[in-house]
Amino acid sequence: MSEQPILEIKKASKSFGAVQALIEVDFEVRPGEVMALVGDNGAGKSTLIKGIAGIYAFDKGEIYFEGKRVHIHGPRDAAALGIEVVYQDLALADNLDVVANMFLGRELVQAPWRLDEAAMERATVETLDSLAVTTIQSARQIVAGLSGGQRQAIAVAKAVMWNSKVVILDEPTAALGVAQTRQVLDLVTRLADTGLAVVIISHNLHDIFEVAHRITVLRLGQNVGTYVTAESDQQEIVHAITAGELQFVPGMAQE
Amino acid sequence: MTDIQNPSGEKRKHDEPFAERETNYIDLLGRFAPVIFLLVLIVIFYALNPRFLSQRNIFNVLRQVSITGLLAIGMTFVILTAGIDLSVGSLLAFSGIVAAGVAKGTRTNTLSLGTTEESGYGVLAAILAAITIGMLGGLVQGAATTKFKIPPFVVTLGGLSAFRGATLLFSNGGPISGFNDAFTEWGQGEIGPVPIPVIIFLGFAVVAHIVLRYTQYGRHVYAVGGNPEAARLSGLNVGLITTSVYVIQGFFAGLGGFVLAARLNSAEAVAGTGFELTVIASVVIGGTSLFGGEGSVLGTVIGSLLIGVLINGLVLNNVNPYVQQVSIGIVIVIAVAFDTFVKSRRSI
Questions:
Q1: Where are the domains of chain B?
Q2: pTM, rounded to two decimals
Q3: What is B25-346's CATH topology?
Q4: Chain A residues touching residue B230 (CB < 8 angstroms)
Q5: B-chain residues near A106 (CB < 8 A)
Q6: Are strands A166-170 and A83-86 parallel, antiparallel or unpaired?
Q7: Is the ipTM reported for this complex over the cut 0.85?
Q8: Å from A125 to nearest chain B CA?
Q9: Could you report the per-residue pLDDT of A131-152, keeping only the tens digit for each?
Q10: Hey, are the CB atoms on B233 and A107 less than 8 Å from each other?
């Protein structure tokens, strides 16, 4: 694991009308690291992630990628840097098959008017194999027919297929059963082992302590601490989530 | 043809376990239902009256469905994005009357004066005018839907009224009729035994099929219909894609308006009244889901033929014309009910 963060957010703020969702939040993740992002509902986890992914811009703050200041104006900018997000609701089109979902928005074409289905199918199978995802029988299955774990695997595979460097997983195990959660956590560990920086949002501290190297805790839109998992315990994290010390008075706009 | 509803165009693998294959039979039945129903109707009508399958009557049916069929191709794009366009009949009339006005160089009906002399701008200008009007109409409605978040049902319901009104204003309520041969050829002419409107219809059906099945744009149309949020997060410009399907629908409304005027040698201000029902029925009977994301142009062509065959067969057998409307209504409901049944079985 490298000590130099690949992605670093400095003093990110974001308001929605009168609501301050983020107040000067610092955040970083290193290559080969699983960084957990935890916090109660409304703590600002999703806002932070969406700012990184380019869904909307931070009002203030700086983003550094591989040490360089970057500006992310949209999902394409984030993708171009190598930042991929796997959303909670998975963002898969149920009516399309696995291959079509993996390549959605970045389809390979033989000619301007013709999709290269064979090449896309090959790449899909290769990616699934490389992630040791063995539960999907056919890359031509329609996604609607897959289980929650399989869909999660597809969403993760879609994220890592693009030579991505940072993969952000938004509650990847929230809707899964025990065995499927196991598969996804194994997948998360494998991603970090290949040198990817992985950010995982979860409410399940048990899962987090199993896979994460470090834990960043958000509370009421503020970063109340980053903990090294090996040197912390669930009790300390729960305390930080519910009663972590705030730098700013919540709800006061920083003008 | 095994993959009518599979946008990827790939055949299913044969090494799936038995349980999966069994559910696929229902799946396959669902996909083939419109074709099977069409064949059954053809057999029944042929048994009742052998003239039904005469070359003349076959082309009659095809000619009959070619205009609504053109509109249905456009409607397939719209419904695939989970949209709807109720304005097609009115937009067709508006495009047609403008095309007629351009061709004749006048907005009043000059047929009664006994002139078919060319005083206007020629047939190509007329075609261009019709298609431009259609696409502009579609663009306005698509933009209203995406920019101002007005449901397409409402926008195009407004269009249904507004474009009809514009048509009546343009010609002061009357028809514009009596064109030269270069104009009417597009609606009345034949190449070999095949009427030109039929060639236009089937030609564009093939083009639309290729676009939806094999191009990146087509894939994106399906994605927007299946899950617009996923499409947006994958970097697709959902607003642009949604707007574009209404422009495509407008193109076909314009083309249809011109061809209908050419066929009737007259652009009527009331042309295309009620077409939206036939057109939407063709698309839905052909297996395209009103919820978006599933369906095909091939299905729409079959749906169009099914309605055409049904009407033609009933007419040939001297069935009361009012019964036709009843039967189409019943067929629509059966088609959708069957589709829902198949989908509920599939998701188990």
A1: 25-346
A2: 0.84
A3: ABC transporter involved in vitamin B12 uptake, BtuC (1.10.3470)
A4: 90-93, 101, 104
A5: 234-235
A6: parallel
A7: no
A8: 14
A9: 877 778 888 999 988 888 888 8
A10: no
